[in-house]
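Batch manifest, entry 17 of 40.
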Amino acid sequence: MRCSLLTIGFISFLMLESCFKDGEGICPTEKFSFERIDYTGNEIRTEGFYYGNSFNTLSSDDTIYEIFFLFKNGVILNAGGAEYENMTSYIEVLRSSGSIYESKKDWGLFKIENGIVTFNQLIPRQCGIWMRERTGVVLNDSTMLLTEEIIHMKNETTIETINDTFCFYPYSAKPDSTNQFLD
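Output type: structure tokens
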């Protein structure tokens, strides 16, 4: 009986281990749909952050806004979300604590071609890391409308129509885009 339990435990360990190896095993890490390229255009502003895609929390009526930074090196940082009046203090806490540099899921790539913006971001899931691709149009240098979200997971792809407007917020204390997850 003890031998059987050890065997079952060892096999379970091997199965779980294959899930946690980055990009290997039964739980793979999806890849970005394009390589990182420097953003040299002037379609959008990059000396601050964008906020939008608001939602209400379950615990209160507070409206939370998704926040992300776009960098000239083609990197996007999803900083999470905060209430409008607390966005800058929320970002300052993230920046000063260094916690934004600890998670692969917060970083991704972006590109703009012919007025179309595309974001690639990694999403950790129970089994592996999926890739979320959002696309939309640049309305002006401080507003973009994301219209499609594609989730790439294992051998499946789901496509959803979205309607998320993001607005620019000038912010001089922008975090550094250097991180351990992107070259």
